[in-house]
Amino acid sequence: MRRKEKVPIVLERLAREIPEPETELRYGSPWELLVAVMLSAQCTDKRVNMVTPELFARYPSPNHLLDQEFDDVFPYIRSISFPANKTRHLMKTAHLLVENHDGQVPREFDELIKLPGVGRKTANVVTSILYDEPRMAVDTHVFRVANRIGLARSRHFHKTEEQLVRAIPKAQIPDAHHYLILHGRYVCTARSPKCSECVLPDVCSYYARQEKKRAREASKEA
Predict the structure, then answer these.
(1) Is residue 2 scored above 90 in pLDDT?
(2) What distances in angstroms separate CA 173 from CA 21, 68, 201, one per listed residue?
(3) DSSP per-residue letters across 24-72
(4) pLDDT tens-digit series, residues 4-39
(5) Does the active-site annotation cover 213?
(6) pLDDT category, 3, cuts 50, 70, 90?
(7) Each residue's pLDDT tens digit, 89-103
(8) pTM of the predicted protein model
(9) Is 171 exposed, middle or buried (CB count within 10 Å of its CB: 0-12, 13-18, 19+)?
(10) What is the pLDDT of residue 222?
(11) Are 122 and 25 in contact (CB under 8 A)?
């Protein structure tokens, strides 16, 4: 089955499984979303959600970070992966938001990626969630699921993003991003994917390969 033929089937089935596609990061403002996504790099959403309530209560806006020292901020995120780097990035980003954007999170992708600690994936997540932009943030879950199913075929995250954006209708990209993440997080896991619980086996390239492998092994034992 060709990629474009798979897309509507995959999206329709995942939409039934995930009727409310949204981020699992908890936030109450654009600033809080930006911070949460920055902290989530190479860290679980669950861990980030454990840390952010106190962090947001102490620093509810970029302005609240302006007169802070590293040692003031670090304790709030010390349990997050790479806490020292993320503390520095967070403080520098707050200063740039106040200096260049009146303390607001910019809508423009090109402005977001100028911020320390904000890479392509983070900028895509923020613009997709806040502004419903047709951007596909490719993390490890999206990369794995897209390439397993056959919605993309690349060893590179950026190429995978490009292929998904070309294949998925623009209006569906924001939801598709969440479908792929959540499917990868709970069903199509990195180790021991739960194929028996999956709604996509008949359109999944990975499943087809596994079935062929099992058939070959069975024929050898016969």
Answers:
(1) no
(2) 11, 38, 22
(3) SS--SSHHHHHHHHHHTTTS-HHHHHHHHHHHHHH-SSGGGGTT--HHH
(4) 899 999 999 999 999 999 999 999 999 999 999 999
(5) no
(6) confident
(7) 999 999 999 999 999
(8) 0.90
(9) exposed
(10) 62
(11) no
- The DSSP-derived string for 141-190 is HHHHHHHHHTS---SSHHHHHHHHHHHS-GGGHHHHHHHHHHHHHHTS-S
Q: Which amino acid is at 76?
A: Y
Instruction: Single out the catalytic residue among 46, 86, 110, 139.
Output: 139
Distance CA 165, CA 9 (A): 16
Q: Which residues make Cβ contacts (< 8 Å) with residue 157, sequence separation at least 6?
A: 121, 138, 143
- Report CA Rg, the chain: 20
Tokens encoding 44: 């679980």
Burial class (CB in 10 A: 0-12, 13-18, 19+), 20: exposed
Secondary structure letter of residue 106 according to DSSP: P
- Let me know if 121 is a catalytic residue: yes
Q: Which of 110, 121, 159, 212 is catalytic?
A: 121
Half-sphere exposure in the Cβ direction for 186 (13 Å, CA): 11
119 three-class SS: coil
